[in-house]
């Protein structure tokens, strides 16, 4: 198969914009499209590449397609919208944190037309999307992953081949399950400590020098919770979606998941409490409300 040089990029949101920008920077011929009116034109004006008015226009003549949208439903819609432009030999690289089962269905439909698909969700958030240092979890045929590797290396520094199509998305959901659980237990520990009389900022320092260290203690608690910023750039609703996918994989594999189920319900409760548009770091407000304590603020007895 020919190397991928011309790329249609669908979905230039918080993550997609810097990822597409890194492809432009790496010298790929990138055409972007997005459901938000004017966003593709803004990208082309600020970053480079070309803007397309529709997914079909973006995919016309492309070697490969990159999709990164909120859900697998939207991936299916984007692929359907590109249908007339998807030619035999093209490769669809889905970087959405999607549902493995649905992705396999989409891939099977594309395969009938001679179009290959791999799933390559990412971890690292907006900061690492900007620097091109994302961790990428990939699923698909080895030959297709080989072909995609130069594209992936322009966006990430750590590429992990997890298995057949859907394996990357399963791994991403399970990664976020571990991350979400660590975040919640860390917040509870900070609340206990603050109510005891400990300084939560000092607690974070101690955790980071001890066995309680995790990604949240390292990169989230001071930056987004104690600062009261709650603006990490990843939506609370998207975390609930990923946790739901992790539990779906658990059900499909008949794996008992009592702690994972509780974790998902707490995040879903926070989403209901805080409403649409909340950042995932704001889940701390659920635990704060239950305890009547604001981290870094009042020191309730």
Automatic annotation (TrEMBL):
Organism: Neoroseomonas eburnea
Keyword NAD: yes
Top-rank taxon: Bacteria
GO MF, one annotated term: NAD binding
Key words, A-Z: NAD, Oxidoreductase
Active site (record annotation): 172
Gene3D superfamilies: N-(1-d-carboxylethyl)-l-norvaline Dehydrogenase, domain 2, NAD(P)-binding Rossmann-like Domain
Descriptive protein name: NAD(P)-dependent oxidoreductase
Domain 6-phosphogluconate dehydrogenase NADP-binding: 6-160
The keyword Oxidoreductase appears for this protein: yes
Domain (3-hydroxyisobutyrate dehydrogenase-like NAD-binding) ranges: 166-286
